[in-house]
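Section: Multi-chain targets

For targets with more than one molecule, the full set of components is provided together so that the structure can be written out for the assembly as a whole rather than chain by chain. Components appear in the order listed by the source. The example entry contains two components.
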Amino acid sequence: GENVEQHPSTLSVQEGDSAVIKCTYSDSASNYFPWYKQELGKRPQLIIDIRSNVGEKKDQRIAVTLNKTAKHFSLHITETQPEDSAVYFCAAREGGGSQGNLIFGKGTKLSVKP
Amino acid sequence: GAVVSQHPSWVICKSGTSVKIECRSLDFQATTMFWYRQFPKQSLMLMATSNEGSKATYEQGVEKDKFLINHASLTLSTLTVTSAHPEDSSFYICSSVGESNYGYTFGSGTRLTVV
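Its structure, encoded as tokens over all components, is:
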């Protein structure tokens, strides 16, 4: 089955700096890679996703890159703000189909210091 | 957009009792529903996958007789925690694939505390 590794587990940056979170996956058939932001006690909130036929996607301050050959994908947040502080999870859809379950990384607690 | 309504949002129960958690898809047909459990400061761990009209598929280490999943219709899936114990206290959350086959819709989660 799919295995997703996420690093770092904690990340502290100064406001305005960039933050990068990296994930690797094991199932070469995986075709969908979302990133979620989760606040305490709440549901994960999708912030950006990327499909396997794309190498990079950007949405304002957030970007995701995917290297299928190396089986890793990364989240980049630029110009970080205190409200970006949260736990971020990467995920990979298992199995390559369209209805497969998501396997999550262990999460990264991001702290943005003003 | 796709919405999954999950109830209750929190529940406190006595050890040995059973608790039912419901997830309803409000504006799409949830053929498949995924059930996750999240312990404090940990990630979401897949417990089981339920498909409408068939038996759920459980992940290794998840007791199917303890965590009963029913997916009798395309809009409703339930998880019943039977004979709950304090170690079952956790955040339970459901998720389904929306119509686009790429967007996953999460319920709001249920905080279960067993005392």
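The radius of gyration of chain A is 14 Å.
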